[in-house]
Amino acid sequence: MNIAYFKDMDSLYIELSPETATQAWEAQEGVVINLSEDGRVVGIEIEQASIKTNLDLLRVGDFPGEVHAVAGASH
Residue 65 sits in which domain range? Predict the structure, then answer.
């Protein structure tokens, strides 16, 4: 799993699987669920992420294990 924030586009992408998406479903405006050919979720894209989420502190890690804080994600 990979999480990337593209500051210049204010877009957050959560890659659940490194597969190429063949389908996309817009769950709500600016929130896109990417699906594999057989319907599995492979990624989630959130446009205008700084408005729709709190990027002041992005935490990544093995939950409920160790968590690493990445400060300064928001603009």
Answer: 2-71
Residue 14's DSSP bridge partners are: 3, 44
Total of domains in the chain:
1
Phi/psi at 40 (nearest 5 deg)?
A: -80, 145
How many angstroms separate the CA atoms of 38 and 53, rounded? 29
Q: How many CB atoms neighbour CB 25 within 10 A?
A: 11
Tens digit of each residue's pLDDT (9 = 90 or more) over 8-21 = 898 899 999 999 99
The enclosing H or E element of 50 equals helix 49-52
Q: How far apart are CA 44 and CA 1, in angstroms?
A: 11
Phi, psi for 50 (deg, rounded to 5): -70, -20
- Residues 31-63: pLDDT tens digits? 999 999 999 999 999 999 989 988 777 665 555
